[in-house]
């Protein structure tokens, strides 16, 4: 499926950006996954040293192999699910609107849409050593309404995104202003 | 005495592996359905599938190496364990 089908792209609409979180924000989960891989090995070595006769029993070996296998399936599934939840958070910026797709769990997704001409303010936040060095941060898009605010979490090049959003918002506002003038006349 | 044959655990293992496969497919269809099947997600998917295949293959190789009789019963509970406990304490 293409993004144009997902956002129900209009005929005059052009996709400018498809943004996702910076890959480095997934690194803590990768490190946790690597740690989880080592747990059964550590438990096996512990039992081998403390209870060597217990480990040599056939039944225990079979149960240990089956349990270990299920554990590794479990952590692979956990890793893949976490990746899908991370990767499915995306922000699509077109020349007409912003679409915010956030995945909160495997079966929980929120999609918000905002027309560009409604944008009042765009703010970027870059806090911390890694975000500063690797140039990623939060972009908050505010409208006149208190209810509708879109936040781009941990996106790369937030300052460039902010400038482009302001530019696109001006162009969209001019387009809608001209359209209103034509309908009035 | 409560005992079950060892192959029951193997059947349970296969059932749980099937559940894992179902959730794996759900994750994959999430990626396809939200236009997120890019090179990155494809590489991660291949990594996960490859690792799962390795785990399955490794499991079967290790089980073959043990060479156990799957019909052998595994005792889950034996009343004599409690009786032996009381005999040892001299109660």
From TrEMBL, chain A:
InterPro entries membership: YdbS-like_PH
Keywords: Membrane, Transmembrane, Transmembrane helix
Metal-binding as UniProt keyword: no
Transmembrane segments: 30-47, 59-80
Domain YdbS-like PH: from-to ranges: 91-165
A Pfam family annotated for this UniProt entry: bPH_2
Protein name (database record): YdbS-like PH domain-containing protein
The organism's taxonomic lineage, starting at the top: Bacteria, Candidatus Magasanikiibacteriota
From TrEMBL, chain B:
The keyword Membrane appears for this protein: yes
Keyword annotations from UniProtKB, A to Z: Membrane, Transmembrane, Transmembrane helix
Transmembrane residue ranges: 7-30, 42-63
Top-level taxon of the source organism: Bacteria
Protein name per UniProt: Uncharacterized protein
UniProt source species: Candidatus Magasanikbacteria bacterium RIFCSPHIGHO2_02_FULL_47_14
Lineage: Bacteria, Candidatus Magasanikiibacteriota
């Amino acid at each position: 499926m293409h993004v144009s089908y997902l956002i129900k792209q209009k005929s005059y609409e052009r996709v400018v950006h498809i943004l996702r979180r910076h890959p480095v924000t997934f690194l803590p989960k990768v490190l946790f996954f690597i740690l989880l891989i080592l747990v059964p090995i550590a438990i096996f070595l512990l039992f081998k040293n403390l209870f060597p006769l217990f480990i040599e029993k056939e039944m225990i070996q079979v149960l240990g192999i089956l349990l270990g296998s299920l554990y590794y399936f479990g952590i692979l599934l956990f890793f893949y699910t976490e990746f899908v939840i991370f990767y499915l958070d995306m922000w699509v910026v077109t020349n007409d609107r912003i679409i915010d797709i956030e995945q909160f769990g495997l079966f929980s997704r929120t999609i918000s849409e905002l027309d560009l001409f409604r944008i009042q303010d765009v703010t970027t936040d870059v806090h911390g050593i890694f975000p500063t060095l690797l140039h990623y941060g939060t972009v908050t898009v505010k409208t006149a309404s208190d209810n509708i605010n879109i936040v781009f979490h941990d996106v790369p090049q937030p300052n460039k995104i902010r400038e482009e959003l302001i530019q696109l918002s001006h162009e969209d506002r001019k387009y809608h202003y001209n359209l209103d003038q034509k309908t009035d006349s | 005495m409560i005992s079950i044959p060892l192959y029951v655990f193997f059947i349970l293992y296969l059932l749980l592996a099937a559940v894992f496969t179902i959730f794996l497919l759900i994750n994959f269809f999430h990626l396809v359905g939200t236009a997120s099947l890019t090179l990155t997600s494809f590489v991660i998917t291949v990594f996960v599938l490859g690792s799962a295949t390795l785990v399955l293959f490794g499991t079967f190789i290790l089980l073959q190496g043990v060479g156990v009789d799957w019909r052998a019963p595994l005792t889950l509970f034996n009343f004599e364990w409690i009786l032996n406990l009381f005999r040892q304490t001299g109660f």
